[in-house]
């Protein structure tokens, strides 16, 4: 990755408090454990791992929504802990997993897209509407959608609205949480290719969170593999997919369904054996070659 990171995490950990049983003592759960990541300008970092591996908690730390229990997070070299919500929002955009629930059904698309500008007190109502119209055109939605409501749109169109809303503040970094998982397969590739085009046009940096290894392979320049709250392997995408070194990375790739002729389905017995091996040994980190 480049020398000047847009986003950097240094030995970040986060614990959630909890209890064991009704009368049990507090037993904190470490959702993120000693994670260090550097995301350079123009990079597309993919974060993969099964549910419960810590991906969503890590995304909240990157957005400044959740303070780390240990370690530090930086945006453009500045500690996130010392930044205001507005300062963070000017630098980071977020695209939610579900385009159906992330948009206010009572607001028009024009209002939804322009809302970040309204919160910042930027421009007049007419100027904000003009900006919204331009960004909608960039993501492939005609002007008539300004007065439409989310319920009148398809899933792919709603996700384009979400992308427009994330871009209207001109952030340097976009964090995408499963941006196509709620969409039809026929629409997923359109949205992913749009994100790649926007990366070139706006000089964007992405963090892509996904369960879909095919999406990660298509989109990313680097991949971080999370297991039990730790990044157990991190490397350029080609190395991860061509020569995975950590057993968990190998398990993820071997468990991926493929349409290749004669490939069949993943061997569940091998999957169970690999998981048993990992349960017997704590997570360890495989560093890039």
Describe the structure.
The longest helix is centred in the last third of the chain and has 18 residues, at 185-202. The strands form two sheets. Strands 6-7-8-3-9-10 form a six-stranded mixed beta sheet, sandwiched between helices. It has a four-stranded antiparallel beta sheet with strand order 2-1-4-5, with helices on one face. The protein has two domains: 1-18 and 31-91 and 173-257 and 267-284, P-loop containing nucleotide triphosphate hydrolases (Rossmann fold, 3-Layer(aba) Sandwich), CATH 3.40.50; 103-170. Helix 3 (109-119) runs parallel beside helix 5, helix 4 packs across helix 5 (155-167) and helix 5 runs parallel beside helix 6 (185-202). The chain is 36% helix and 22% strand. With 289 residues, the protein is α/β, with parallel strands linked by helices. The chain contains ten helices and ten strands.
Blueprint (SSEs and pairs):
Layout: E1 5-16, E2 29-40, E3 44-48, H1 55-62, E4 70-75, E5 78-79, H2 85-91, E6 92-95, H3 109-119, H4 125-138, H5 155-167, E7 173-177, H6 185-202, E8 205-209, H7 213-219, E9 222-227, E10 230-236, H8 237-242, H9 247-254, H10 268-280
Parallel strand pairs: 3-8, 3-9, 6-7, 7-8
Antiparallel strand pairs: 1-2, 1-4, 4-5, 9-10
Helix pairs in contact: 3-4, 3-5, 4-5, 5-6, 9-10
